[in-house]
Specification:
CATH topology: Jelly Rolls
CATH architecture: Sandwich
Structural class: mainly beta
Strand order of the largest sheet: 1-10-3-4-5-6
Order of helices and strands: EEEEEEEEEE
Number of helices: 0
Number of domains: 1
Distance between the termini: 7 Å
Largest sheet: 6 strands, antiparallel
Helix content: under 10%
Shape: globular
CATH superfamily: Exo-inulinase, domain 1
CATH class: Mainly Beta
Length: about 140
Amino acid sequence: MPGSPNTFLVTEQVYGDFILEMDVKIDNENANSGIQLRSHFDGAANNGKGRVYGYQFELDPSVRRWTGGIYDEGRRDWVYPLSLNPAAQAAFRLNTFNHIRVECMGNEIRTWVNGIPCAYLADSVDASGFIALQVHAV
């Protein structure tokens, strides 16, 4: 709904090392979403309304085309913007299903879109956390 904040569908289980694969379809280049990885919730943040924070696989079909980049929701912002891998910016296709793959192993996070490598991040901030699907603020 217009004016709504970010919302998340969160797993009940915590995950450390994992491979996540799914197919994603976005039919509007103004849409923006993401998949939280090894994330957490701070109930005291945002004036007691709470806040999700942690790694996010970006789903960005805008002209920027950063789908597959890694954003650190609620903390450090971009930790692997897709401007670091311009060849991967053409991997995501609007109005069709796209195959997403994320590998979180040890302190490494790797992402793919339609078989094309997008991001590689070595970072030790979070070794585990929940997985969540994001609906971006409207």
